[in-house]
Amino acid sequence: MAEKTRGRPRSFDAGAALDRAVEVFWRQGYEGASLSDLTEAMGINRPSMYAAFGNKDDLFRLAVARYAEIDMAYAREALAQPTAYAVIEGFLRANADALTRADRPAGCLSIQGGLAAGSDHGHVARFLAESRLTGERALAARLGRAVDEGDLPDGTDPVALARYVMVVSEGNAVHAAAGADRASLHATIDIALTALTPDRSPRPIGG
């Protein structure tokens, strides 16, 4: 992204242009976002787009990486919480808030981006699934540490628990895109969190 065209520096802010591409892909999905849509939103022409970001597929991958870095920073912050319960609750609560921000499209780019089937033989959907799996694996590793430390009961399957958390998160993303409000998503989380305590009350394990 630091290339020059014909020896001259680019006259646009690449980061800002990429942020606008993120929003187009988020709202319209990979298939629905045309090159004209993208370049118009980014404020550049096609040659400039190709020179700075590559083709549409390259641009999409950069947009997803940008989204993960900025819009999903809360996921990394959640992993730093001191208990497994706080990790899971922190992630799900922040996720619900992110899915319903007034200044961003509803839902989640990693879900919305690959919903439509097209002529790509499913490679975009597979790429997004792998991107989500990366986050799921990171969560599973953190929950595995919680088992080792005695913060989660012996016999807890951290991989299955991480998948459960992601199912809740991804389900909320679909409902947010369909118009569910923030309070509704948090109500779902309230119920989901009861699965983490033997007495079915939403209290931290061991708390």
TrEMBL record:
Keyword Oxidoreductase: no
Entries under Pfam families matching the protein: TetR_C_13, TetR_N
UniProt signal peptide: none
DNA-binding region: 34-53
Residues annotated as domain HTH tetR-type: 11-71
Claim: Transmembrane is one of the keywords in the record: no
Top-level taxon of origin: Bacteria
Annotated protein name in UniProt: TetR/AcrR family transcriptional regulator
Keywords (A to Z) from UniProt: DNA-binding, Transcription, Transcription regulation
